[in-house]
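Hi L.,

As promised, HAD family hydrolase:
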Amino acid sequence: MKFYRNLSPFKVISFDLDDTLYDNCEVIRTAVSRFVQFTQELTRCPTFETEWLVWKERVAQENPLLSEDVTEWRKEALRQFLAAQGKSAVEIDRTLSLAINEFLHWRHQIELPPNTPQVLNALRTNYKLAAITNGNVDPWRIGLSQFDLILRGGEHGRAKPHEDLFHKTASYFNVSPQEILHVGDNLTTDVQGAIQAGCQAVWINLSDKSLIDFPQATLLPTLEINHLTELLLL
């Protein structure tokens, strides 16, 4: 555990989800692969994967705010692709429903490390807990029921590092931002976002890298840990 700033008393601990409370890499790779395969068969379009990526990038450029909600971004890109293929409104709605459900099914095939629910259960006896994510995982769906508040970027406000979700958390629990300790793996979206919003920030460094390995990071966290269980020492 390394401290870079003075740690002040806090009442709320907020958590990023992906790559903070579980390994997200293989899960998202599988979900995307299954989504592409399923939709390609459904639409009978052999070039779907290539065309889909073009539409996804186009939607992001045309509507960057929409792309902060990763589920709606995926839906809109698929909707525009299907419309360009000449599909009817009924076909588009049916394909969207089936394809997005397929993606979300595989998106939630997450194997939690045993210590994750254990740490959350221990912390919730003394603190209010929140999940603040830019992703589309539903914590309840993967067995994490410890959160008093769940906020997703795009759906509930601007995505991190924007201050929206942090300030909404402070308002919900009726605390000052300084009384929130945010835990996350990303030095930009989590650490920079939390510090800029007036919160305190824990960088969970699971890769054993140094801060100097991330030149894009502009703000120091309050402290750095290498394992989730270190939070119990606070």
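Strands lie at 2-3, 12-15, 128-133, 149-152, 180-184, 200-204, 223-225.

Thanks again for sending the construct details.

K.
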